[in-house]
Design brief:
Layout lengths: L12 H26 L7 H12 L11 H34 L1 H16 L6 H8 L3 H25 L3 H9 L4 H38 L5 H10 L3 H29 L1 H9 L1
Helix pairs in contact: 2-10, 3-4, 3-6, 3-8, 5-6, 6-8, 8-9, 8-10, 9-10
């Protein structure tokens, strides 16, 4: 019997990467040409923005990993808050979501609370967190956690609830203990949905980081953008926007690498088939 045709894109991944780079280059080139031709001081060309980003944040000594004093004072604290809030929300969201998804009684009790919480816009609660925690890192981390936990929680509930029944019945037939059923059957079965929620929440963490630093922070990327807006520092404003875009690309790429490793067991049967 002849082998099945290769999955589209499996052998053409280098060409896909090249196509993406060409599209990105075309967009940046068009932006550069349009901004240069317009000569508008409020619409800067990407070359000027990139140069300003480099000198502001990445022109430091090698002993400091080429980070400037501005980067260590603002960029690193922002990343620390964002990743801390995202990690706490990820752990709590997965744990609660799997429990709600697998325990019908808990689902009946908590489902309305989940829908209520996810319907509340996270920026609306920033003043509440500011009142409770005052200005500082705890307030910002709390705002990030509340803003990003809902995609993780909802996807974990859905993934745990819809694990293939054949797998769970087989685990019961082999009399696996509850802990092994959780780690070997339920979590792997729910992993695709959980990873989708984690990826979405990572992007939201960047947004909530900026919003929380707008409201109550004495440093950070959001504080720099707020300062740029209040002083009409247009180059700095564009530099922060560009930095956020670069951070989004880098974080998404790193998460994609981790996701491929976590879900490698799913692709192996497809490849052999």
């Amino acid at each position: 019997m002849s082998a099945l045709p290769a999955r589209p894109g499996a052998g053409g991944r280098p060409y896909l990467l090249l196509a993406r780079l060409l599209v990105l280059a075309a967009v940046i080139g068009g932006w550069q040409l349009g901004a240069t031709a317009a000569g508008n001081p409020y619409f800067l060309p990407p070359a000027q923005i990139a140069s300003g980003m480099y000198h502001r944040w990445f022109d430091g000594p090698a002993s400091h990993l080429w980070l400037t004093a501005d980067a260590t004072a603002n960029l690193l604290p922002s990343l620390g808050r964002m990743l801390s809030g995202w990690a706490i929300a990820a752990v709590a969201g997965v744990a609660l979501g799997v429990a709600i998804g697998r325990l019908p009684l808990l689902a009946d009790l908590a489902e309305s609370l989940v829908h209520f919480g996810r319907a509340v816009p996270p920026p609306a609660l920033v003043p509440v967190f500011l009142f409770v925690f005052k200005i500082g890192t705890p307030m910002e981390v709390a705002a990030i956690i509340f803003g990003v936990i809902w995609p993780v929680l909802v996807n974990s509930i859905d993934g745990a609830r819809h694990v293939d029944g054949g797998y769970t019945e087989t685990a019961r037939a082999f009399r696996l203990p509850p802990a092994q059923r959780l780690t070997r059957v339920i979590l792997p079965g729910a992993a695709p949905k959980i990873c989708a929620g984690l990826r979405l929440s990572l992007a939201l963490a960047l947004v909530m980081m900026i919003i929380s630093e707008f409201a109550g922070s004495t440093n950070g990327i959001g504080n720099e953008m707020l300062t740029a807006q209040s002083t009409f520092d247009i180059p700095l404003m564009w530099q922060v926007i560009g930095l956020l875009g670069v951070l989004g690309i880098v974080l998404n790429a790193l998460f994609a690498v981790a996701e491929r490793r976590v879900l490698a067991w799913q692709r192996a049967p497809r490849a052999t088939s």
